[in-house]
UniProtKB/TrEMBL annotation:
Keywords: Coiled coil. This is Uncharacterized protein. It comes from the Eukaryota. It comes from Aegilops tauschii subsp. strangulata (Goatgrass). Residues 2-133 form a coiled coil.
Length: 143
């Protein structure tokens, strides 16, 4: 009887040990799977980091090229303006050099029109102010 009881206890303990071993094997397999997943993520993160650095370098390079082109464009614009100004000047012998460029005259006309418009607006504003002052003075006199 004691021997049977001991056999049953040994069998129960053996089953528990087998279950624990099975459970630990399962956990070990999960751990290894997680480790593989982490390694895969590390590789992916590293690839994305390299890609981001590559894109940043490309963007910096393009920005530098854009800045160089902008400076080049400004330089060409200045040269074009200088050439245009030179082309618009005509020598008139004894009378020296006189500017008769159409573009210059057009710009002057636009400027004068703008000045005239501002003067008209200023006059209108002054008239409105004088009307208001006049009405205020009349109201003060009436009181």
């Amino acid at each position: 009887m004691l021997a049977e009881k001991n056999k049953k206890l040994i069998e129960v303990e053996r089953k528990k040990a087998m279950e624990e071993k099975s459970h630990s094997n399962h956990l070990l397999a999960q751990l290894q799977e997680q480790k593989k997943l982490n390694e895969s993520l590390q590789v992916s993160i590293e690839a994305q980091r390299k890609n981001a650095m590559s894109e940043k370098n490309r963007a910096d390079h393009l920005l530098q090229k854009l800045e160089e082109e902008r400076k080049r464009s400004e330089c060409l614009q200045r040269k074009s303006d200088d050439l245009s100004a030179t082309r618009d000047m005509v020598s008139l012998g004894k009378h020296g050099i006189q500017h008769i460029g159409v573009a210059t005259e057009s710009a002057n006309i636009k400027l004068l029109k703008e000045k005239l418009k501002r003067k008209k607006d200023q006059l209108k504003h002054v008239k409105n102010e004088s009307k208001l002052e006049k009405s205020l003075i009349r109201k003060e006199i009436e009181l």
